[in-house]
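Subject: mismatched residue count in predicted assembly?

I count 438 residues in my input, but I want to confirm that the predicted structure covers every chain. Input:
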Amino acid sequence: MTRQNTQNKILDAAERLFAERGFADTSLRLITSEADVNLASVNYHFGSKKALIKAVLARYLEQFMPKLSEELQKLLQAEQAPTLHQVFDSFVEPMLALNNFRSNGTNIFMQLLGRGYSDSQGHLRWFMTTQYGEVLQQITLAVKRANPALSASEFFWRMHFTLGTVVFTLASNEALRDIARVDFEEDIDVEGLVRRLVPFLAAGVGAPILPAFAMKEAL
Amino acid sequence: MTRQNTQNKILDAAERLFAERGFADTSLRLITSEADVNLASVNYHFGSKKALIKAVLARYLEQFMPKLSEELQKLLQAEQAPTLHQVFDSFVEPMLALNNFRSNGTNIFMQLLGRGYSDSQGHLRWFMTTQYGEVLQQITLAVKRANPALSASEFFWRMHFTLGTVVFTLASNEALRDIARVDFEEDIDVEGLVRRLVPFLAAGVGAPILPAFAMKEAL
DNA sequence: ACAAAATTCAAACAGGTGTTTCAAATCTAT
DNA sequence: ATAGATTTGAAACACCTGTTTGAATTTTGT
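Triage response: the counts match. Full output below for your records.
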């Protein structure tokens, strides 16, 4: 029973520190001292720092991904094509549900997501392609149904623009909310932030295609 | 005359390596060995690694910012309000002009911009607020004229969504273009990428405001 | 209660970082 | 040409990193 205790103490401290400071800037010594365990125990229980990072991400993705998949399935099973707004909206509830899984969970997951992509590239990408490829395909399918006018290439770029908006916003959400709080006394919560993203992204992905590029495609 | 030579050798090697690997992952030993100068010379000529990073960024910003400011001024002086598309379009030419300043300059600057924001937060932000505050205000003014419906808070958030899209896309533009090249044999150049961002951002910033948030604002 | 397995612990390892030092070399003026 | 300032060079400094080691401890199954 001590095993679980130590492992979880490490995971809890690590996820908090990773979210606050990023993966690279969080040393094992800091994690283990905050978790009140021995330095060697992270290598003993997880093998390496990389494996610890994956374990931290996995704990959240296991909660988030099935719920997201379910939401997308609802849209895909409906007879009429979804709107882009609906597609992006289906991310919101699974995101907010993380607050039930762990206190402040939505916020931590958002920052982990941001870090996971921008820090040492690869960790998050690894999960997406190897573990959750089907969900990725559901997303693709839903967006394509919502906006069939997009060519393969335009779709690719706009999805990455979207990813960038999300990753950046999530990674720096606490800093941004701090600024907003002092600049115009608006105390926005995580939910408000997530919900504000939806119309922005839906409009961006649904934007008309420049004639110049449309022509290029036709060649 | 040897001074300039060494300093520039360092700057040239540093900007390339910073763009490729980020600031944190580029050691002074790597920079000085590629520049073929002594390790100590970067501390001698620039004082510290932080100061070197600032010097690298400054060289590009000095080229870019006045041109951007000029483009924005054109829009602001016109009688009728600009469109969002026009506002974001005014970034494109100054961006592309960097290829005349230095070979592959646009691409390097884009990656530096991305790194400068997501890496060790602060460097780029320092320039923006202390050195180029007026340009920042021009941007603000132009966007507000193009979309007066935005409240201060909605404006703030959408500008940061925009920043996120740009920073992320620029930082990973080489990787993304590589994927695009193999996935659907489309060899997009930097210009094509920058131009594709414009309609996405214009649509996002111009998206209708959710009734829920519009109500909140009215309180 | 005891033997065996699992876990914790303090310490050291091997390698990396930015920065400093101070003598040697080079350039710059008189 | 020579004295003085500037620049280069090799080495060391102080500190931090993830990982490994091997003995001490605790937990587990019988």
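Chain B has two domains: 1-47, 59-218. Marking this ticket as 'not a bug'.
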